[in-house]
Amino acid sequence: MFFFFFNDEKRTVEKMPEGKYIFLDFEIANRDKGLCAVGFVELVDGEIVCKKKLLINPQGIFENQYKNIHKITKKDVEKADNFKVVWNNELSKYFDGSYILVAHNTLSSEIDDLCKNAIRYSLHLPRIINYYDTKELAVSNKEEHEGLPELASDYGIEYDDHNPLDDAEACMKLFAIYYEKGLVKKPKKCNTSEKIEEIIEKSKRRGSSNIEDKKIHDYEIKTFPEYMKGKRVCISGLFSIGENEVEELCKRNGCEIKNLSTKIKKCNTDYIIVGKPNPAWADGIGNKTKGYEKFKEEGYDIKKLTEQEFYDACGITIKKK
Asked: Which of 15, 20, 5, 89 is nearest to 54 (CA)?
């Protein structure tokens, strides 16, 4: 049995399968798969029920190689919810076992993103995710190209590459085309428990980049230290409550966030708060920490707090999961 999807722009009719589908695309901020945006289209029995684009606060750094692709910046997501909130409020209902996930390069991209953020935020995923992959469908159709932008161009689908909602809609239209060609068979299954175990084991073999060390924890705070209010503060490394959260705590208490590095000629910082080493640091020491060491040697009075010393000063208690 099939239903019809009408493309009003082209006035064409494409066959769509019966059932409940979620077409999904994430944009990431860094190599740790911190999510900064999501676009999705909910399709039920051939009818678009909901389509939405949301910015997400990744609670971590924006690396240039990703920022240059999707053009989303740290400032854009300052007031956005983190992925835990987005998952609970917007996405989890599509993973109750009744929907089929459709994406491009689904297992390596969207499901991998989901699993890594489930680890990071201690979220519950369904044991099995049923999915289709439009990249795999393209391969089975012996297409000249496999990338979503190229496939969209080949089929005359106009969209804005790396706009997550446009990506999700382009994926939906490709899926309709491949369904009409008779290429859509039974969905594949991903065992998320096995996928998460695989991710954890792989990260442990990398040592400093152990994904379990990057979990974001809920917390309670008693007070912000008076001696730091209104001061110039530099934040370096990874924090269990999230680097962005530490920055926002400081900003809410009148602090000015500074970039203390070896490249600047004059010290501009009163305090540096140092978290766990970022795996991206080649020698295990960040440029901001190197800047601190340089200016200390030159006689500047910069006070250094470790992550735990900062938590103790604020009376921060990490909530147990």
From this structure: 89
Distance, CA of 160 to CA of 68 (rounded, Å) = 15
| 268-303 pLDDT, tens digit each | 999 999 998 876 677 778 889 999 999 999 999 999
Could you please state the CATH topology (level 3) that the domain comprising 2-208 is classified under.
Nucleotidyltransferase; domain 5 (3.30.420)
Q: What are the φ and ψ backbone dihedral angles of 100, each rounded to 5 degrees?
A: -105, 130
The pLDDT tens digits for 26-58 are: 999 998 899 999 999 999 988 899 999 999 999
Return the domain boundaries, the chain: 2-208, 219-318
Q: What are the angstrom distances between the C-alpha of 295 and each of 178, 211, 230, 262, 263?
A: 61, 32, 21, 9, 11
- The pLDDT, as a whole number, for residue 139 is 96
2 bridge partner residues = 17
The CA distance from 8 to 82, in Å, is: 35
Residue 148 has pLDDT above 80, yes or no: yes
Cα–Cα distance, 100 to 130 (Å, whole number):
5
User: Are 19 and 45 within 8 A, CB to CB?
Assistant: yes
Give the alpha-carbon dihedral of 215, 220, 222, 224, to 10 degrees.
40
Q: Which pLDDT value is given to residue 262?
A: 82
CB proximity list for 32: less than 8 A, separation 6 or greater: 60, 116, 120, 211, 214, 279
Which residues face 101 on adjacent strands? Answer: 22, 131
The CATH number for 219-318, chosen from 3.40.395, 3.40.50, 1.10.12, 1.10.10, is: 3.40.50
